[in-house]
Amino acid sequence: RKEVEQDPGPFNVPEGATVAFNCTYSNSASQSFFWYRQDCRKEPKLLMSVYSSGNEDGRFTAQLNRASQYISLLIRDSKLSDSATYLCVVNPYNTDKLIFGTGTRLQVFP
Amino acid sequence: GAVVSQHPSRVICKSGTSVKIECRSLDFQATTMFWYRQFPKQSLMLMATSNEGSKATYEQGVEKDKFLINHASLTLSTLTVTSAHPEDSSFYICSASGSAGGDTDTQYFGPGTRLTVL
């Protein structure tokens, strides 16, 4: 089983739609969780950290379910510029290592 | 703040040659730098972790004699791919963590280096 698993997509949605991605992780002792965004042939950029109580940043909402070991990202009112690959990232060992999922590709169309 | 640069951004080389990639933290001191590799349609895979002034810690399956890492200062780490072969063609990305903005845990990523070995 992979340490971090994501549906690769692609998710093709129209502008203005709401879309949600899920991610599961295998290590129940994991402490830190993140969503990164990666554009084609570019480096990943931190989108948001994920906190136990859930957190929101504008149109983006992240949630953590420790019991089921999954993390979600909700994007409301999708924009064309949201088209990218969204990477679920976990720090599984409470060290400085990050484990990346393979990413979920989002394509927003007009 | 918290800018990480990489050089070169793209390199094409012949099989058997060695390639050096530089990773620099421009506005903070990076006590730890990380080197990742990403093949097409795959996730970033951590290759090694390096702390300034000490030997790098390599992940399982990564040959330390092939991928030489030097972290001689708090702002510079280098990755040298020795005797490169076509299967080494990949996107190499570094990240750095340290004293940026008082947050010592966040990793800041460089823009990556695309290596193509002919």
Short description:
Helices cover 0% and strands 54% of the residues of chain A.
Rg of chain B over CA atoms, rounded to whole Å, is 14 Å
How are helices and strands ordered from N to C of chain B?
EEEEEEEEEEE
Straight-line distance between termini of chain B = 37 Å
Outline the biggest β-sheet of chain B: 7 strands, mixed
Give the strand content of chain B: over 45%
Biggest sheet overview of chain A? 6 strands, mixed
Q: Order of SSEs of chain A, N→C?
A: EEEEEEEEEEE
Which secondary-structure class do the elements of chain A indicate?
mainly beta
What is the percent of helical residues of chain A?
A: under 10%
DSSP summary: helix tally of chain A: 0
Q: Outline of chain B, from the CA principal axes? A: globular
Distance between the termini of chain A: 37 Å
- What is the radius of gyration of chain A? 13 Å
Q: State the total count of DSSP E strands of chain B.
A: 11
Which secondary structure elements does this structure contain, and how are they paired or packed?
The complex is a heterodimer of chains A (110) and B (118).
Chain A: E1 4-6, E2 11-14, E3 19-25, E4 32-38, E5 44-50, E6 55-57, E7 60-65, E8 70-75, E9 84-91, E10 99-100, E11 104-109
Parallel strand pairs in A: 2-11
Antiparallel strand pairs in A: 1-3, 3-8, 4-5, 4-9, 6-7, 7-8, 9-10, 9-11
Chain B: E1 4-7, E2 10-13, E3 19-25, E4 30-38, E5 45-51, E6 57-58, E7 67-73, E8 76-81, E9 90-98, E10 108-109, E11 113-117
Parallel strand pairs in B: 2-11
Antiparallel strand pairs in B: 1-3, 3-8, 4-5, 4-9, 5-6, 7-8, 9-10, 9-11
